[in-house]
Give the backbone structure.
Amino acid sequence: LIGETDKHTVSIRITETDPSEVGEVRRLEIIDKDGNVAATISPDQRVFEGLLANNAYKVVMTYVYDLNDGNGEQTFVREITANTKKYTKPSIIIRTTKKDYTWMTFTVSTVDADELAEILTVEFLDGETWKDVGIEDTYLIEDLVPGNEYKIKVTYQYDMKDGAGAIKEEKIYDTSTKAYKTPSINITKLEADPFSVDFEFDVSDIDDVGYLSKIELIREDGLVIKATNLAQRSFEGIDPLYDYILKISYEYDLLDNQGKRTLEVTKEFMTQSQGLLIGNGVVKGIGSCTDTTLYINMSVGDYAFAENKKIIIIVSNSVKKAII
């Protein structure tokens, strides 16, 4: 007894050795996994039909013979196991085909070799609400927010015809709209002398989503000096006794419902104090000092201007700065 299977059938072959022709196949039946008779065929048939896919069965053959020896009919049973073949589980493919800042298109397709799947709904998540967008070949969703995350949900069902019934599943796909580029600023030049500073900077705003809002000079004591116009590229008349921060502010909106943002780029600098380089001078000693001025006695040889760092002087337990 040999069996061959497909998804819903089991075929058998019977090899019979009965040269005296005293026996016959009396019964052929197939038993399911629960022990119930799933199907019975006549002795001259060889195919069990209408079975469940991907199930384990047992084929039972009852054979009866009579040797005419006064013992009457004798019976023996032969059994074989047979597993029907299973269907291929279907799957869903969601693909974004095009997208821009405020719209996108997508498609929904099935990978379903055995044609088992049925798409029930296609939904698009915008904010907190799932919106049913119908069953289409191609979907166009508009009035979206740039740079935002969205979800597409496909609900579908299929039946593997194995007795388990219809199975419902969901496939969720994450996508997003195209985002505007965030601007950037690069300070390319900053040159300072004791009383002024010159600067240059480059603005990169590919999508034109912002504008230059402020140019400021912030002194180390907190004083803020604002540019009188946004074309200004220098500050004059600054106090050389302080360190400074140049701050460039740029406001922009990426239209992503997050409102306006401010890009701030800063660069610290010290003024370059003006002093005398003494070719052959000698410091004679420290003279008198006030709250803001230190007097140094020197014998002077050759004079020449040079760039010197600020000198920190401790006066009355506080830090003072002086220029020499």
Summary: The chain has no helices and 27 strands. Residues 274-291, 297-324 have pLDDT under 50 and may be disordered.
